[in-house]
Amino acid sequence: MSENRALKTVNLSVIKTACSNCNLRELCLPLGLNSLEMAKLEEIVSNRKRVKRGDLLYRAGEPFEALYAIRSGFFKTDVIMEDGRDQVTGFQMSGELLGLDGISNENHSCNAIALEDSEVCLIPFDHLERLSRQVPTLQNHFHKVMSREIVRDHGVMMLLGTMRAEERLAAFLLNLSQRFVARGYSPAEFYLRMTREEIGSYLGLKLETVSRSFSKFQEEGLIAVQQKHIRILDIPGLKRLMNHGQG
Amino acid sequence: MSENRALKTVNLSVIKTACSNCNLRELCLPLGLNSLEMAKLEEIVSNRKRVKRGDLLYRAGEPFEALYAIRSGFFKTDVIMEDGRDQVTGFQMSGELLGLDGISNENHSCNAIALEDSEVCLIPFDHLERLSRQVPTLQNHFHKVMSREIVRDHGVMMLLGTMRAEERLAAFLLNLSQRFVARGYSPAEFYLRMTREEIGSYLGLKLETVSRSFSKFQEEGLIAVQQKHIRILDIPGLKRLMNHGQG
DNA sequence: CGACCTTTTGAACGTATTCAACCGATGTGG
DNA sequence: CCACATCGGTTGAATACGTTCAAAAGGTCG
């Protein structure tokens, strides 16, 4: 009732972030909140921010103040060692939260870089903590989001620690596929937003190995690949490949 | 009161968990709490549990109900794939929290196994959430603990994704050393609680490679190793080795 | 004390990397 | 709008690193 949802000539740029209208609310922080609770969350999700392709949303070492919910676009996070080597720690897409690494010591510990023009919702962390003390549903869901990140990381460790090159790539493609499905896109056809080198960094492989593995998958009829455009032709085949590691 | 564990002469086993007396309180969940807050925490840290060497504290798939603070002892966590391959995701020592992985979907996603006779404090998770709604310091600290786990995992990804065998082992030894120091033990001399195979699983290497790398370090005068007994002779040397990856 | 598990070490092997050349796509400035 | 420069991707051949297989020695625990 006393909701926004304007009449006529309300300038688009004035429309505040409205989680309740966001089609990502089932993937994002508002999951499970009732409309009253959602309204409270909207109050603290203060602003949106645009990040152009190639730009950093935040940088390792910067003070941590807010989490970011990806409204649209695609990001990578990476960590860089003193000697220059870097490791991509994840690829994030719409509805996912960026910045959780910064809570630990109030400084970001990785870089977040937009792989395409993107838009994020700012969630000042002190506000989020305050609100989640009042809204148990939000509190619990936030804890689950953090925990899910830990579980995801364990999956990456498994991938890096025990899988061969082609298994890693298969796992990577299947994971992307799943996440696209959850967003209403095709599970079988998508554009990669990242380069072979970035995929390689994430998977602990060199870009040449990634490229060779793509070619091999194509030869075997598992996928059709043309640069960044991927069509998965045989999902069960990829799954089989993934779980038949060392024979 | 209606508790088990009979009375008689103030039996030692009756003494309740008392965070305020625990010498791990500066490493563990109570960090930063005042005495009133600590008292509240003690109320919910209900019981202790002994876990014998080789026994599982929890198992992947089991329903998640509580976190566990390690009071004494040493654990590993691992994840097992359908095809039997397994990945050690971490080694945990006193003052560290086990079970964070279970929050995400209310089921544990890894196994926690005691590598020596150990004792843990049970922290029922619903109680913890309730209390952390009342105690902002606790809430914030808990968030930091979870975030720290995420940052740690990123470090492991870096290790698995970009480091060579010897660098990984050096990083592993230096990490253990640091953690022992934080607990008042020697940074340079300690017993490994895990086998070469478990180290290898954690580091994404085979046990033979771990063994060979230990021998190499010994030849180079970096460490003295005798089975599970380690003496680090040249910490700066190990650090150098770790950061001079690909030349 | 004997059985078993862990660790060490050697030699052959295999997978991913490195180095290099080439091709195609993309984007910018004249 | 085209030409050119740059970046990203593919593919081949040689190499290197860690793995695999194997044997034996050293510890540990019933």
Automatic annotation (TrEMBL), chains A, B:
<dbReference type="InterPro" id="IPR018490">
    <property type="entry name" value="cNMP-bd_dom_sf"/>
</dbReference>
<keyword id="KW-0804">Transcription</keyword>
<dbReference type="Pfam" id="PF00027">
    <property type="entry name" value="cNMP_binding"/>
</dbReference>
<dbReference type="InterPro" id="IPR014710">
    <property type="entry name" value="RmlC-like_jellyroll"/>
</dbReference>
<dbReference type="InterPro" id="IPR036388">
    <property type="entry name" value="WH-like_DNA-bd_sf"/>
</dbReference>
<dbReference type="GO" id="GO:0003677">
    <property type="term" value="F:DNA binding"/>
</dbReference>
<keyword id="KW-0805">Transcription regulation</keyword>
<dbReference type="GO" id="GO:0005829">
    <property type="term" value="C:cytosol"/>
</dbReference>
<dbReference type="GO" id="GO:0003700">
    <property type="term" value="F:DNA-binding transcription factor activity"/>
</dbReference>
<dbReference type="InterPro" id="IPR000595">
    <property type="entry name" value="cNMP-bd_dom"/>
</dbReference>
<dbReference type="InterPro" id="IPR036390">
    <property type="entry name" value="WH_DNA-bd_sf"/>
</dbReference>
<dbReference type="InterPro" id="IPR050397">
    <property type="entry name" value="Env_Response_Regulators"/>
</dbReference>
<dbReference type="InterPro" id="IPR012318">
    <property type="entry name" value="HTH_CRP"/>
</dbReference>
<feature type="domain" description="HTH crp-type">
    <location>
        <begin position="163"/>
        <end position="236"/>
    </location>
</feature>
<dbReference type="Pfam" id="PF13545">
    <property type="entry name" value="HTH_Crp_2"/>
</dbReference>
<feature type="domain" description="Cyclic nucleotide-binding">
    <location>
        <begin position="29"/>
        <end position="99"/>
    </location>
</feature>
<keyword id="KW-0238">DNA-binding</keyword>
<protein>
    <submittedName>
        <fullName>Transcription factor</fullName>
    </submittedName>
</protein>
